[in-house]
Amino acid sequence: MKKLVTMLMVTVLTAITAKAALAGDTLVDAKKKGVLVAGVKDSLPPFGYIDEKSRQIVGYDIDFVNAIAKKMGVKVELKPVTSASRMPQLQESHIDIIAATMTKNPERAKVIDFSHTYFFTGQKFITKKGSVKSLKDLEGKKIGTAKGSTSEQNVKKAIPSATVLSFDDYPQAFLALQQGKVAAVTTDEAILAGILAKAPNKANFEIPNLQISDEPYGLGMRKGDTNFVNFVNKTLLEMEKSGEAKAIFNKWFGPQTQYHLNRNFKITADK
């Protein structure tokens, strides 16, 4: 019996060691390389998009990555990802961290680790103005969203009779709405506000006050990369305490911006 217990302990320790080795230590590795590689969106203002003047990727998510990298004392390399590609890119070590409007949920948390919530929003819809007053108006209709997003699953649960069409990204879904191929586009309100703000014919569309879920965003890291996760969480809490996190929010969503939203959250230690 004692021998069996010993063998079981060795097996468990081996598994734990293997898992730790698989995850690696991004904090140490990135400092050695001098670079933190971040997976970000590049066509989703104001979270991540290519600035017309600088031709650089900028946005809310990018500012958080830059702050974390600065704290680490390294440079940042930004790699564009989609909702569907971001987790595989992380798991295959092509990127070190996901900063790409990623909602935290139990299913994803089984595969990767998340930071504390650094942005909070809710899932809504863009529709043609006056066409949708309630969810009943979308029953049996075609609704566009992005592949690999939580929005896909949420809208299927909220409106089972709807046909969900999944595109590579949200701008493509909005183009389908403009062309009359879908009756609505659904994702997080903050993303919808960014899409609508950039639309030349935005007066023809609206975001009805119909929310079907809460969407807390987290920065994604490899499962078991504990040292890095703890560092990122500590940095986020420090940014909240110093006012830097609020300043970043106001920069992209404040009253003077075209994406104006109220900051109805604070970054706190998740329970």
From TrEMBL:
* Name of one Pfam family that matches: SBP_bac_3
SMART domains registered for this protein in UniProt: PBPb, PBPe
Domain Ionotropic glutamate receptor C-terminal as annotated: residue spans: 35-255
Q: Which Gene3D superfamilies is this protein grouped with?
A: Periplasmic binding protein-like II (3.40.190.10)
**Solute-binding protein family 3/N-terminal domain location, by residue?**
35-256
Domain of life where this protein originates: Bacteria
Q: Is Signal set as a keyword in this record?
A: yes
InterPro entries for this protein: Bact_solute-bind_prot3, Iontro_rcpt_C, SBP_3_CS, Solute-binding_3/MltF_N
| Alphabetical keyword list | Signal, Transport
| Signal peptide annotation | 1-23
PANTHER family given in the database record: ABC TRANSPORTER GLUTAMINE-BINDING PROTEIN GLNH (PTHR30085:SF6), AMINO ACID ABC TRANSPORTER PERMEASE (PTHR30085)
Family, similarity comment: Belongs to the bacterial solute-binding protein 3 family.
**The name this protein goes by in its record:** ABC transporter substrate-binding protein
Species source reads Pelotalea chapellei
